[in-house]
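Regression test case RT-17, inverse folding.

Input:
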């Protein structure tokens, strides 16, 4: 059973989904315990399941992707170290300077505008043995890459960076908020895609339909240490099995992500066929569609005009807009969105 449809077609993000009645029922009936004491059976079940899907030894449930990434940073590094990450990455761009504020870490950025930095660029950033330099403590990647338009990063690219990390004995963390979208697009198992990295995070509330929650997975030793850092950041929750139950149900939605990708392709194709001068599709990867608008007022104006038509999108800079398909939109919604955009074109011409 799906959730009740709203008057809006909301393509701002795949985080806007509502839990289904079935998911709410599972949440209400979940077995719970005190998770700080590691006594919540539903949380433990979710953590084991998540680790298994990604081929890692252990997992940890956290409230958000940002907390999961910051917990990973704190666990891999020590204050005063430096981390290497993409200049367009979520950890660098959208996590409120947490690496510096929480971990006392310096950041060194590399070009990742195509989704993954080149291994030679990463290697150049690794610090040598010099009393003037901070120690390189961690390398971070992202898959799918948000600001690259939802691009799935191929396994061989991750392996190339992992080889550099291994050569210099530096751990490698993957922000895999939408790792299952990447695996679906690349037609590879999530475990294969995660194999080269030491730790990985993923969101239960992006694309998979849970109302809240993210996972961090890695070795048993790593997760044991991460547990303490989660507590430090305020992530030690109590009878949280009611949320973990939603996460377990959300994992069943991995198998339907190809439908989101198909609808994104349909959306991109339909918008391209409108022949709206000044509006073009500049990217479609996984469940993302990126538009470029050259008309008066730029992306902010078009976003506002779309809102007046009950069509919700995100502005993505001065001229770009992001549209994201998800499990709460269907074929009919995509067709209505394209029709609504065409009607708006006629009004604005």
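Golden output:
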């Amino acid at each position: 059973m799906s959730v009740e449809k709203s008057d809006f077609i909301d393509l701002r993000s795949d985080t806007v989904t509502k839990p289904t009645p079935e998911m709410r029922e599972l949440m209400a009936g979940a077995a719970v315990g005190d998770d700080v004491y590691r006594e919540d059976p539903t949380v433990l079940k979710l953590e084991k399941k998540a680790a298994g899907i990604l081929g890692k030894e252990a997992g940890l449930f956290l409230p958000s992707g940002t907390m999961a990434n910051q917990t990973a940073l704190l666990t891999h590094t020590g204050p005063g170290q430096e981390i290497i990450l993409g200049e367009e990455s979520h950890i660098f761009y959208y996590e409120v300077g947490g690496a510096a504020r929480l971990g006392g870490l310096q950041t060194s950025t590399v070009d990742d505008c195509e989704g993954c930095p080149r291994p030679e660029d990463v290697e150049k950033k690794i610090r040598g043995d010099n009393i003037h330099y901070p120690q390189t403590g961690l390398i971070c990647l992202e898959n799918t890459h948000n600001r690259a338009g939802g691009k799935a990063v191929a396994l061989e690219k991750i392996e190339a960076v992992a080889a550099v990390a291994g050569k210099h004995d530096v751990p490698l963390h993957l922000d895999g908020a939408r790792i299952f979208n990447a695996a679906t697009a690349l037609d590879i198992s999530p475990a294969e895609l995660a194999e080269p990295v030491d730790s990985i995070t993923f969101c239960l509330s992006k694309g998979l339909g849970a109302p809240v929650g993210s996972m961090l997975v890695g070795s048993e030793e790593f997760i044991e240490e991460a547990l303490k850092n989660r507590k430090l950041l305020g992530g030690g929750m109590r009878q949280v099995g009611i949320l973990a139950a939603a996460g377990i149900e959300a994992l069943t939605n991995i198998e339907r992500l190809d439908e989101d990708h198909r609808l994104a392709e349909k959306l991109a194709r339909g918008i391209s066929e409108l022949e709206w001068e000044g509006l073009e599709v500049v990217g479609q990867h996984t469940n993302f569609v990126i538009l470029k608008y050259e008309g008066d007022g730029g992306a902010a104006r078009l976003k506002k005009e779309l809102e007046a038509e009950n069509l919700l999108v995100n502005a993505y800079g001065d001229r770009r807009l992001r549209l994201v398909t998800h499990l709460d939109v269907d074929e009919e919604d995509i067709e209505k969105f394209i029709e609504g955009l065409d009607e708006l074109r006629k009004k604005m011409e």
